[in-house]
Write the structure tokens for this entry.
Amino acid sequence: MGQAAPGKVLIIGDGLAGALMAWECQERGLDFEQWSNGSPAASDVAAGMFNPVSFRRILPQWDAANHSARAREVFGAIESKLGIELWHDVPIVRVFPDEQYAELWSERANGGHEVSPFIETLASKDLHPSIKAPHGAGIVREAGWVDVSSLTEKSRAFWQDCGQWKSQSWSMDEGCPTGFGAVIDCRGVGAAEDLAAFGLELRRNHGEVITVQTEAGWGDETVNNVTWALPLGSGAYRIGSTYRWDIDEPIVLKETLNHLVSRVNLARTDSALLLSDVTSHRAGLRPSCFDRRPILGRVTSEASWYVVCTGWGTRGVSIGPTMVDWTIDAMLGITSDVPDEVHPKRFRTFTKN
């Protein structure tokens, strides 16, 4: 298929989606500018964790191997350009909640299941002494986290220095600004009202995380017992996260603070974490869809210049680079359209015209 250059591209939003979109536009030689109105973004509080396994079902995440490989490539390239460290490989120890879960994990780890390449069962002697796991534990080695806050902060400063970033708001009713041939909407929940006009529901998934400083000596692995504790180094840990659909503002709740601390202590032999160890408590609204797949591509023929790339949910670090590729490929005509699994037409309420 032939490549159809859209002219100068306007990227709306400078969270994780906007940052990755900007770097890929540069990689492809596209002329672009990025606008942001400074609204709070889920990326501001994101832990940035990547994990190829769904612990609830003990299954691989959506196309985990391919998405992870592309993510590692893209974040590595951005690290080189910005001169900072973003990608951190940190295995996850999954504490089994009961014997039935432990048996299923062991069966899938050893039985040639599709999730087998990603999971192992840990012998008790291999567990860090701080971990309490009466039913046993498993490990996912191809996991870790990306420093999303550093990515967005440093990217914003970089494009500002290049004259390609502007503090400017935008909404669909303003149309395509003069001088631009395409608008790529990476606003996250900020795009919800505009997308609703096309029958597309972008849901707000409220989540809270805390950061703690402890001398407990918990080791260098993330420990997950539904709540997770991610080591940041020097005795600091990020702990999360909650998932609520009944809160529309990024507010922090005292009950959440108590819940996260108590849950983390359940997985530790010393139960040493105190509320006084908490150094920060933050909340954000994750953009998500009914089927946990993003919304990508064009949503109306009457405004073919308008392209969406949002709804990444909790797995933006893992899937984001591929979602950006798909969005740009379809916009340029390299592919006929984005894949059906992320296309707006999968919404029964979609009103494309």
